[in-house]
Design brief:
2 copies of one chain form a homodimer. Chain A is mainly α. Helix content of chain A is about 65%, strand content about 0%. In chain A, α5 crosses α8 and α6 crosses α7. The radius of gyration of chain A is 18 Å and the shape is globular. The N terminus of chain A is likely disordered. Chains A and B meet through α6, α7 and α8 of A and α6, α7 and α8 of B. Chain A binds a DNA duplex through α1 and α3.
Chain lengths: ~190, ~190
DNA sequence: ATGCTTAATCGACACTTGTCGATTTATTTT
DNA sequence: AAAATAAATCGACAAGTGTCGATTAAGCAT
């Protein structure tokens, strides 16, 4: 069971109807979120907006939280891709990632909804982890340290910090915050080499 | 609207019926979680187990997720309190916190349910933050660094690392993991002093 | 073009959710 | 002890949820 669109560029062909349905559901939810709170949106409303049947929804997602999560992951992946953030150009990349998370959060919560809730962790953090994963592959050589663990820990730290920043009343600029996050998180990766 | 029991030792008196209802609801949920998945438990089942009316449930929690969160926070707070973990005895405390999180996760997910899901972030992380907060108060002096931000970032990092450890197949001991976490997270606090 | 496979649709189902007003019961105040 | 306050109960409600079997229609293979 494939779980997200627009990954795996050369993967095996996927039925275009599946892509279409998922895309329309995401667009429908995105559109509705401009008008009302996530909690106040029913599956029926989503499929109406998407001009799909309600049963089709459940063919793709177990519930509306899963759709929100998939949509968030897709959008954030998109933002990362647009900025060309791979960890291959290694320095400054950490700050760029942090800035991406801050920007994304600020952007999607500038809407009427205060989306700084839970379902986002499950979608943004894994994307950040993947970026670190790719970066680790391009890195010199992992002696004995668990690169994946470092990536996970850093991803959570970044998200937690960005989330706190977002819900701070008189917050500083995203760029400033990204610099702070970089300072805090960078040593995590250095901790491996004592 | 008070949100949790067993805090504020000398606070204004709370109606004993409120404490009783919330305690019974938490115990009921805890008991049911030994038998079935959280998703498969309805509010009706919870109040049946607690011998309370369903309307009473909604008098205290907006939904069952809120109850799970409150229960988790209470249990984790309890574990922290039992171990006497305040950050006042500053060194080694970070590892002790990490160990507490690992132990708690391993303990509550040893049950049939794989509770390493989302609602836990919302309950464990804040508790860890509070511990850091108290520790910061007993600390020398915050020059210009945002102690709260450091605490939040560290709390998320700890939880993320512990969570990953938990769902690792051939995982190392909790003590070993706590040591690793300490190593990774400690520099976060030192990052402030360049 | 024809059939095979699988996604999308439809209507219906039992169940859960969250809320309400009205009543009863427990606790605190005076 | 009696009155005032607030929590717990009850029944009922409209709405939403997740699932099902049966049908239609779109995409893919040969």
């Amino acid at each position: 069971m494939p779980e997200s669109l627009q990954s795996e560029p050369t993967a095996e062909a996927v039925d275009p109807r599946i892509l279409r349905s998922r895309r329309m559901l995401m667009e429908a939810l995105g559109s509705l979120l401009n008008r009302k709170e996530f909690e106040d949106i029913s599956v029926q409303e989503i499929v109406d907006e998407a001009t799909l049947n309600r049963a089709t929804f459940y063919l793709h997602y177990p519930d509306k939280n899963a759709l929100l999560q998939a949509m968030t992951a897709a959008r954030f992946r998109d933002l990362i891709a647009r900025r060309g953030l791979s960890f291959t150009d290694c320095d400054g990349a950490l700050r760029a990632i942090a800035l991406g998370v801050c920007d994304y959060l600020a952007e999607t919560t500038g809407c009427p909804s205060q989306l700084a809730k839970m379902p986002l962790e499950g979608s943004i953090i894994p994307v950040v982890e993947v970026v670190f994963q790719e970066g680790a592959a391009h890195h010199p050589a992992p002696p004995d340290v668990d690169q994946a663990l470092l990536g996970t820990t850093a991803a959570w730290a970044i998200f937690g910090a960005a989330r706190r920043w977002l819900q701070t009343p008189g917050r500083v600029s995203a760029e400033e915050m990204a610099a702070k996050i970089e300072e805090m998180v960078k040593p995590i990766f250095l901790s491996a080499s004592h």
